[in-house]
Amino acid sequence: MKSPRTPRAAVLRVALIASARFPVREPFAGGLEAHTWMLARELTDRGHHVELFAAPGSDPALGLNELPVHPCVLSDVARTDASMPAADWMAEHHAYLRLMLDMAKDGEQRFDIVHNNSLHHLPVAMASALKMPMVTTLHTPPTPWLESAVQSQDHCPVSFTAVSAHTAAAWRATAPEARVVRNGVDTRRWPVGPGGPYLVWSGRMVPEKGAHLAVAAAREAGLPLRLAGPVGDRRYFAEQLAPLLGDGIEYVGHLGRNALSHLVGGAATALVTPCWDEPYGLAVAEALSCGTPVCGFDRGALGEILTPDCGRLASADAGGLADLIRETVRLDRRAARERAEHFCSMGTMADGYTALYEELAL
């Protein structure tokens, strides 16, 4: 017999599935981890019961259930098979398989809704085994594994959301009814800063984020630049970024939120230089919340977030970006903050998700 659903306006019991690759804790490995942490905190602050299923080492204050990300005990024959994937892939696969089997067994007694924020295909592929609804947020462009998981089911029971209209359009062939719920930032934790004489760039140090192009644009504009973020690709950092440091270009490390918000709020302009079609761009929302206007490449979803009052968009080359930096530094910091509050705040995002949860679960 099915248990009764939570009545409207009562507490919702939410299972929040995170990526198993990096812990959900500060300082965040990337935007996905930051997004999941903020959503868990906001839902909890609103009185909902949240259990987070995330990588070992995640923030224990979030109702943490550590995913069993550990090596599978495989036979010698299995490990020597030509089709044997990498050990990390197997560990992640095993963790989500265990989670979904457990959810299918007793999840209905614990949860009203499952919100899948992982990038893995198994939660979607096994969603039909659950007795409660699942929401899956699309954080990336389409991947073959996830498209296959959706298409393997005659009627995929998952309700999809996308972090931008750009991302929803990219998934239209596979998830045509994906609802846009844009990522948000907690504007209380990203306060308005005074601005200052330098430019700032924040994000993962990987080729697709284009930090080297931000350096080139800053040099051409004749302004100092401070770079912050985790080194996700050591070879890229060593070969393409480290030689550029000095003479006004400084790498300040992988900062926690307090230090990063202070850095971003003290900048004249934030540079955002994706070398791919960015599905959202959390660094843009963080900068706007700090009152810092943004000068970035017109790729992916950046054009959805920025308006002429709070930013400038250039074609994807350092020279075009440099030409617009002088305009951007003169933009009104109040307009940047207002854009964050009205368009990409945590409250707006949480309203979108809780409305969907109630629609599906109550």
TrEMBL record:
It comes from the Bacteria. It holds the Pfam family Glycos_transf_1. Gene3D superfamilies: Glycogen Phosphorylase B. One of its GO terms (molecular function) is glycosyltransferase activity. Residues 195-332 form the Glycosyl transferase family domain. Keywords: Glycosyltransferase, Transferase. Residues 30-189 form the Glycosyltransferase subfamily 4-like N-terminal domain. This is D-inositol 3-phosphate glycosyltransferase. It comes from Streptomyces griseofuscus.
